[in-house]
Write a structure and sequence with these properties.
This protein has 310 residues and is of the alpha/beta class. It contains 14 helices and 7 strands.
């Protein structure tokens, strides 16, 4: 049976919840339900008219939450699950009659569940289909990308999203190999890429390749930019946004947005040189301590950023 401990262990849980500075009767949004750890911690601090909406585009998260029996969030009338991509945050909240919130939490890490389910194709550790869709109800798969993108398109996404220095070489080899046989399995990617890696870089390069494909399949950075832009409008003055990032691409977006208040990250200053932004940065990039990393190795790459709406 899947549970929160196997589905996903949230990194920096206490720091994240403290950063939100939760008001018991406030309205909060967890745009990444995952294993339910963050949502459960938020609900424990809400009373009276306090309300929480938890988003996830993968119905597995909803199914997992149902397995808690009498402790399930489903039994709390102040909790609402939203099956959808957080890029549509404003549309869903408008549907539920919510036009302002007191806090928003986003854990941008991929759940253990996804990495550990071979049939989802997120990990090079297992043999499985090249899928990588968070929402399995539609959209392109990693197989579609690997076999239909041009060599130039593949090289660009591997360089931008995987930060692979040998992106052009990898793209060339992928295009050559797909002429002989469609590339539709994770083990095929591993077999193709391994000869292009040094023995000491093999796992890192494979991780970069799979990351690049996953980001493209789910348009993760585009969705993040849209969600941040909407969150700024929805947050009440004094409301807080807490975001956990796991790689430099998404962290750069979050850092620049919270500092500048705009998606472009353009810093505007007043006559006296003060930065004009709707946010006051509370936490600039907290990382897990050695004890937490020992208990949860995947927390090693987590970075927490928190800001308050002015």
């Amino acid at each position: 049976m899947t549970n929160a401990q196997t589905y996903h262990i949230p990194a920096l849980l206490n720091d994240t919840i403290e950063g939100l500075n939760i008001h018991p009767d406030g309205t909060y949004v967890d745009v990444t339900l995952g294993g339910g750890g963050h949502s459960r911690a938020i609900m424990e601090r809400l009373t009276g008219t306090g309300r929480l909406l938890s988003f996830d585009q993968d119905m597995d998260a909803f199914t997992n939450e149902q397995q808690y029996g009498e402790h399930s969030l489903h039994l709390n009338p102040r909790w609402q699950f939203v099956h959808g991509n957080f890029r549509y945050l404003d549309n869903f909240l408008d549907y539920y009659g919510i036009h302002a919130i007191d806090g928003l939490l986003a854990d941008l890490g991929v759940s253990f569940h996804h990495f550990d389910q071979a049939e989802r194709g997120f990990s090079f550790r297992f043999s499985g289909p090249l899928d990588m869709r968070m929402n399995q109800q539609g959209g392109i798969t990693a197989t579609d990308i690997v076999n239909s993108y041009s060599e130039q398109q593949l090289a660009q996404l591997l360089y931008l999203y995987g930060e692979m220095k040998n992106a052009r070489q990898v793209a060339h080899v992928l295009c050559r190999e797909r002429q002989n046989k469609i590339i539709s399995r994770t083990e095929q990617l591993v077999e193709i890429l391994t000869p292009l890696c040094g023995r000491d870089k093999e796992k890192k390069d494979l991780a970069r390749l799979f990351q690049a494909l996953r980001i493209e399949v789910n348009d993760e950075l585009g969705a993040l930019r849209e969600m941040l832009s909407v969150a700024k409008k929805l947050l009440r003055p004094g409301g807080r946004i807490a975001i956990l990032t796991y790689h430099s691409l998404e962290d750069r977006i979050v850092k620049n947005f919270l500092r500048s208040g705009n998606i472009e990250g353009i810093i505007e200053k007043d006559f006296y040189g003060n930065i004009l932004t709707p946010f006051r940065v509370i936490e600039k990039g907290l990382t897990a301590d050695a004890k937490e990393v020992q208990q949860n190795p995947r927390a090693r790459s987590a970075k927490l950023r928190v800001a308050e709406k002015i």
